[in-house]
Amino acid sequence: MPKFYVYITDRLHEDQNFGLSHERVFTEIYDAESKADVKELVLKDFDYMPKVREKMTSKVPAGERFITSIHELNDYWYDIWLTPHKCRECLNAYTKIEKAKFRMGGSPEFCSSECQKQYNIRFEATTVDSYNTATVYMIIHKPSGKKYIGVTTRWLMQRWWEHIKAQSGSPFHQLIQASSITDFTFEVLEVFKPSEHDPYEREAIYIKQYDAVELGLNSVGGHNKEVAN
């Protein structure tokens, strides 16, 4: 069955900076036999639109604000919209249609603008390939035995200092602020070249190995979002 890519534009969207502007408000891919069938599906999902209009004409009432674009997917666009990708920050899988449908934003390497923001904060918008070495490290809270796994491409003492000063509100940073520095140990687990191994994947391997999410201080299973620089 053919697949159709559909998006709806609000031609009367009010922008606080630019006044009225066109904004995409709905995106979906449908399986349907024809464009007419697609229109029926669109009206069910976008039920406050009176009818599907594919272009504006002088006959369209002024109060009708939505314009619908419908395109049958060929192989090229099928791959563009439906091929799975892995987010560079959280490592979760996503497709471009999911990003468009939920308006997640962010560049193509990330599942959302939030993941891109966290990546840029942590690595200061610099790719790890520009550094000679990467280090996976483990911080242990001695009184509880809980472990935190991280990765950095910078000087380790600088990374430790950043953890001490961080105000992210994460359980890990709250524990640091409530404890003495002598309550922690800092260990190096692996040193390698970023050009030979993906730092995020190596970090995720050690997080899983030490069960640092369930039993430790990591909040996610790879490239921890709670770390602030």
From TrEMBL:
Q: Where is the GIY-YIG domain?
A: 132-216
Record PROSITE patterns: GIY_YIG
What are the transmembrane regions?
none
One Pfam family in the UniProt entry: GIY-YIG
Which InterPro entries does the annotation name? Answer: GIY-YIG_endonuc, GIY-YIG_endonuc_sf
Identify this protein by name. GIY-YIG domain-containing protein
